[in-house]
Amino acid sequence: MTDQLPPIRTLIVDDDVRVAGIHAQFVNKVSGFEVTAVAHTAADTLAQVREQRPDLVLLDLYLPDGSGLEIMHDLGEEPEPPGVIVITAARDLSHIRSAMTQGAVHYLVKPFRFAALAERLTAFRDLHFRLAQLDSGSGEADQQQVDGLFQLMRTGTITTPPKGQSAETMRLVQDFVRGADADVSAVDVARAIGVSRPTAQRYLSALAQQGAVELRLRYGTTGRPEHRYRGGSGA
């Protein structure tokens, strides 16, 4: 999918030149992204957004000439506002709540490892490309597609029920597996949510194929291995 669309143009914003450089290196390591500019002030950020028209801004909240939250407000008034991933040392709920209400797609607290940023970038990339696919079609989405987009933004995965099956049952199965303390079987799921074992197995198989849960085989002394499931990395 990443080969079929242009890379996601990304603006890095951080008042620390060294940190901004590290973040740029991180972004360039993730397939489907390219860093188009780096900014260290609020004024430069807005100027770069209007000149470069990035798809994504990695935004620090503490800048020498203004707040990243103020920048988010200004970005929201742009004709084609970019997505924003907040990257900051701010941990207080007032900053977090404000960033959420102003449309931040993710909020990453410093310091963090590359894997944490890569996970959020990958989720944004998949969301960006899925929206592009819908836009190139009818330009509209049905409720299941809408639910999938919001799920992708929250968790990094879209879980689609098998044809003719229930999205609500799919959610119940996934939630049970994700909340379990240990691997679970189709029998465990069936008992927990009140469906038959074959039904539970169909949903578990679909979730495993989509990467939302992880399949593990438990080998006994005889017979076929037992299929066990646990919450996957995107679940």
UniProtKB/TrEMBL annotation:
Residues annotated with 4-aspartylphosphate modification: 60
PROSITE patterns: RESPONSE_REGULATORY
Chief location bin: cytoplasm
Subcellular locations according to the entry: Cytoplasm
Domain Response regulatory: start-end pairs: 9-125
Species of origin: Microbacterium kribbense
PANTHER family: TRANSCRIPTIONAL REGULATORY PROTEIN DCUR-RELATED, TRANSCRIPTIONAL REGULATORY PROTEIN DPIA
UniProt keywords, alphabetically: Activator, Cytoplasm, DNA-binding, Phosphoprotein, Transcription, Transcription regulation, Two-component regulatory system
InterPro entries registered for this protein in UniProt: 2C-system_Tx_regulators, CheY-like_superfamily, Sig_transdc_resp-reg_cit/mal, Sig_transdc_resp-reg_receiver, Tscrpt_reg_IclR_N, WH-like_DNA-bd_sf
Keyword Metal-binding: no
Keyword set includes DNA repair: no
The protein's name: Transcriptional regulatory protein
